[in-house]
Every structure is written in structure tokens, then in C-alpha cells.
UniProtKB/TrEMBL annotation:
Gene Ontology MF, one: mRNA 3'-UTR AU-rich region binding
Ribonucleoprotein listed as a keyword: no
Keyword NADP appears in the UniProt entry: yes
Name of the protein: Quinone oxidoreductase
Keywords from the named record: NADP, Oxidoreductase
InterPro entries cross-referenced by the UniProt entry: ADH-like_C, ADH-like_N, ER, GroES-like_sf, NAD(P)-bd_dom_sf, QOR-like
Coiled-coil ranges (or none): none
Listed GO CC annotations: cytosol
Origin species: Ferirhizobium litorale
Domain Enoyl reductase (ER): 13-323
Amino acid sequence: MTTTKAIVVRELGGPEVLKIGEVEIAPPGPGEVQIRHAAIGLNFIDVYFRTGLYKTNLPFVPGKEAAGTVIAVGPGVTDFVVGDRVAYAGSDGAYCVERNVETRHLVKVPDAIGLDTAAAMMLKGMTAEYLLNRTYKVGPGTTILFHAAAGGVGLIAGQWAKALGATVIGTAGSPEKVALALAHGYDHVINYREESFVERIKELTGGKGVDVVYDSVGRDTFPHSLDCLKTRGMWVSFGQSSGAIEPFNMAILAQKGSLFATRPTLFNYIATPAELAACANSLFDVVQSSKVRINIHQTYPLAEAARAHADLEARKTSGTTLLIP
């Protein structure tokens, strides 16, 4: 048994509960490898677990995605060897220097992709992949509205949707974020602090509305997102950065045009090793093709995870943020 540095949450609450300390780490067990992290992804889902919005047992190490190098392999592991460059999204416990991970969560990182880039894109990039290719299949002739266009998922999705041939509309909360989104595939970006995105969508679509709204904001954009959809359009609620949506009468979907609504999560789309590999490989391919570029906008030392969370919640960040062990 050895020790490693990790952020351990012992009580639910604000960013201040994120404290670094020493934790024990055992040799990898059957079906596991031990990884030394090069970079760790910061995501809003980490906030949800820290505050208790998403339930887990205390104490816990937060974090859903990271990339690093295999430093030991457990009994029976044949598909990974020491020295492999790997990444994952979906295995809890990423906020640490070293850890054991079940191989079913891992993918090998192509040589052309840096480990920092891999850590920056696994959860966000695979989220964009399933949203655009499987939740609602985007292609030529599709018009989409993507809220939080300058966020980590938004910047990837904007480029990817454009590469698929869609008309891509986004929302953002400042002139700087509007400009950032416009540089990442968006045809139009609406500053929601200065104008009604519902009215602007009507102008941009000639009153028809969009085919699909991708909404990770939640309370602040509901039910207005529904008013942006064309008849039989789809509202995809995949997050709630502004707070949870209150229960609503399903009849509203009929009243606003026989709308479809779904609340997907990445982990239901990568539940098997085959699904994970397909999703990750699709992401790696589009990045290596240069149709989608992954930009790292902020980095924080792992020990300063509390500051990173505070900045994320205050909407001081844009794009992708990494924690560096």
C-alpha cells in the first residue's frame, strides 16, 4: 500500500469543501490498471456531486475524466501494458495524482493527441458526439440552438455541428464569449444578457424555429427553450448549470407543438466497452481530421480545485478547464 495526493470531499457544500490530502492506494486489482495522471478535466457534473444535487456516498474523490500513463497492471489484464497512454470519462475519482481504474472505462489515446488534450475532451467531446450523432442526428439542413455556446461542450459541438452541415446558433453571456463561439463554428450567437433569444431565433428562422435545442443551463432557459422549437422539434436537457428545472405539466409539450423532450446522460451512451470505444474513436477521428480543435482555456493546480470550482460557478471560465496534478 502506498499513498498519493487527492482532493477528498468529506462534507457537501461550496468550493471550500474541496481539500487536498494524502490517501492510500492499493496495487491494481483484477481488471484494473494504475494510472499516473497528466491532466484532469473539470466539469459541471463535479459541482453537482460536490453540492449533493447528484447523490453519492461520503467521503469521495470527485472528478469524472482524466488522462495519463499506465504505471502498473492488475492480474488478468492483457489489453493494457505499462507505458500506455490512456484516458477515461465516467470513472469517479479523477481528482488525484495516481489511481486505479477498471480497464472497461479506458481508451488508448492516439499518438497524435496530447494527454492534456485528451483530458480536456473526453467527457465534453463524447457528450458532443452522442448529442449530435445519436440523441438527435444532426446533418445538412438541420438548424440547432446550443445554449452555453462558449462552454466546454459548446465549443466542441459548434465546430462538429458545422462540420456535419448544420446551421448552428448559440447563446452566450458576454461579448467576449460571443466572439469565442463565433470562432468555433457558430453561424449566429445571441448575447442573452442583451436580447431575447426567443425573439432572435424567430428572426433567424423566419418564424419557423429550430429543429433541436441543446440545453445544459436548466432553470434560466426553461421554458423559453421550448418556444424556440419548430413543430415536433426536440428539446434536449443535458444539464442544469443555473439550477434544476421545476416539475412541469407534460401538456406544455403538446401546447407548444407536439414537442419531444429528453434528459440524456453520457454514461447511458457509453455503458459498454464497445459503445465507449465507438464514441471515443468518433471523437478522436474528428479531432485528428482538424474539423474540431480542442482549446484549453484555463488550468489550475490540483491543489487549487476549490478556486477552479468557484470560477466555474461564477461563469468566469470559458471553454475547457484542466486541473494539473
